[in-house]
Request: fold
Amino acid sequence: MQGESPSHPELLDWLALDFMNHDWNIKRMIKQIVMSATYRQSAEVTKQKIAADPENIYLSRAPRIRLNAEFVKDHLMATSGLLNREIGGPSIKPYQPKGIWESSTSGRGQLAKYVQDHDGKLYRRGMYTFIKRTAPPPSMLTFDATNRDQCEVKRLRTNTPLQALVLLNDPVVQEAARVLAEKLMLEKSSDEEKLNKAFRLIVCRKAKDNEFELLKNYFGIEKKNFSTSPAKAASVLSAGEYRHENIIDKSSLAALMQVIVMMYNIEEAITK
Reply:
């Protein structure tokens, strides 16, 4: 009575009947929606779309939505090849700053201390992260994940400087960048080809000429800095527990890693 009428009532009726006629299969319904031409539209706003549908009521374009906190982590691990695609099982405890967990515990029982997981468990999807309500994972909380205090029908989406700091310094980001850089360094390709491939993996499109020039220049600056400071390169490349590849050119590897970290900080990288 208080809301607006649906913009596509016939479509809603059709979806309801289709859902019912296929044994109320939720998985099938979701797959059908996300594979539709409407859902897969570009978020690019043209003058024609603005003129015809300024409020996007008739779904003339896709909405631009930042990925949920769990998906931000999944994207980092998927693009670097770290993601453990195992489905189901117990929750896992990923990297977490020291002291946060212990500051809100009674000091008794199994949850008195934070015991981080290792190996394959460390790279499971974000949805499997163990959440303690009095000390939820800080990086996920920064990206508006729920702390499980109450049921949330719809999450709020905020934009704060802390999110940029997470994407610059979080151990998952640093490790993903290091692993992806090592994989690219093992390939027999030029520096330009490595940068282009990393950009396409992370942003899902080709870099524009001006964007590529910025990436290339930044790579050159970082490579020069690391070549004069091997200790700094070694420190940067120590990120994460995942196995290290034997790369001889440490300065190029560290520079590529820093460029990849910058790519992860592009708004498009975590925006659908």
Remarks:
- The chain is about 45% helix and 0% strand.
- Residues 9-52 form one domain.
